[in-house]
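JOB MANIFEST
job_type = single_chain_structure
chain_count = 1
residues = 497
[input]
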Amino acid sequence: MTADLITQAFQIFLSVDNLLAVFLGVLIGTVVGAIPGMTTPMGVALVLPFTFTMQPVTGILLLLGVYKGGLYGGSITAILIKAPGTPAASCTVLDGFPMAQKGEARKALDMALYASCFADFISNLSLILLTGVLATFALRFGPPEFFTLIVFSLTIIAGVSGDSLAKGILSACLGLVLATIGLDIIYGTNRFVFGEVELMAGLSFIPVLIGLFALPEILNQFTIKKEERASAGAVGYVGASFADFKRCFKSILRGSLIGVVLGAIPGIGGSPSAFLSYSEAKRTSKHPETFGKGEMEGVAAAEAGNNGVAGATMIPLLALGIPGDVITAVILGAFMIHGLRPGPVMFQQNLPLIYAIFMGIMLSSFYLFVTGKLTIKTISKIANIPNNMLYPAVLILCIYGAYAINTNVFDVLVMFIVGILGFIMLRMDIPAAPFLIAFILGPLLEDNFRQALLMSQGTPTIFFRNEICIVFWILTTLSIFFMVKNHIQMKRREMAT
């Protein structure tokens, strides 16, 4: 990295807007994560429309801040009221809530914060060190290679996003179908527009996103049986000491590395990473019997595994243009809204911008620490906000977000239709992640498929033209095989019990 490149990156990054965007993003994400029923993807989806008028780096850093804050925020209610704000925080409940019951809530919250910040920092370093290497390798990719890569990514995401491979594939197929609505990218013919002029340009990304992730949660909150939610108790004043951090350091470091490895694999996410980190900490502990009864090391391991994925999920996004999970899919949408396309070409044409984003990502770890230390008592009270007050406000934000981008009522209608579809999918346990990622990658999949066939004059053997294509086909086949095998084994165990 030359001095000129560093100078350009600093010139892009060092602005009040960027510094404020990272901080606000972390704060918003922490608040959203601390509200039971409000997921981090939902928070990112609601914030995305507000980035439309921002500079690209500012908008992306705001979303990344929400992402980072949301991962930690889920631990707050997990510890205080046994209601994880995010799915990955379910692992933090195992020891965090027992600690709160023993009057050690502040210690648990502090350790969750320290583990989160350290893991986030390690994950950010991995992003900076590995992304450029992967992007350089990806410069060898042509349309056939990108097509096989996208097929492999969709297969992985469809398979690991839910309990059923068939439901994951169904979700991805629905997303691909919706991605074809509008004008054909080569021949210019109408597809699935049904005479509606508004559909000729295809479905807008933001209404689909909000409808898929925000509206179903709102509808679900008003339809499920209302249960009494515990009130957040006193946080206390005695926090975790440096000696406590030192005692848990091995588990934090191990969890951070587990998060980096699993986060870089599309579709894995924070939950498997958190539980694997927790199980390894318990397995290697000298006192495994204390886990599940208020063991601080359990909290540290779970949060390290959860937050270790944050930077790593950005590796395939920035290097290959392939989102690894729902949130990076939203961030990919933010790039596209601003006329940018992540991938190896971006490293050639917009390298200063990428390094400016890296700077903001590193700053987010510091902001996360400051936010957690200064606002923990205030944010912990957010869990007490009644749903009948919270979700009408969220619904207003949804409508505003869908309308504001194009000032088009039709987009609001799309949001509600997709929202109803998303609610049906939620009730049928059909994962939404493959849907959104397929919707975003659909045009790219089709474009590379057609370009490859044009290159080969219609000969399909071009998709097996070199070792890269063959490796991706092998990986796709193996992933399907093991997913089907695991599904069959799980069904057999269920029948046996």
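[summary]
The mean pLDDT is 83.
The chain has one domain: 3-227+241-496.
exit_status = 0
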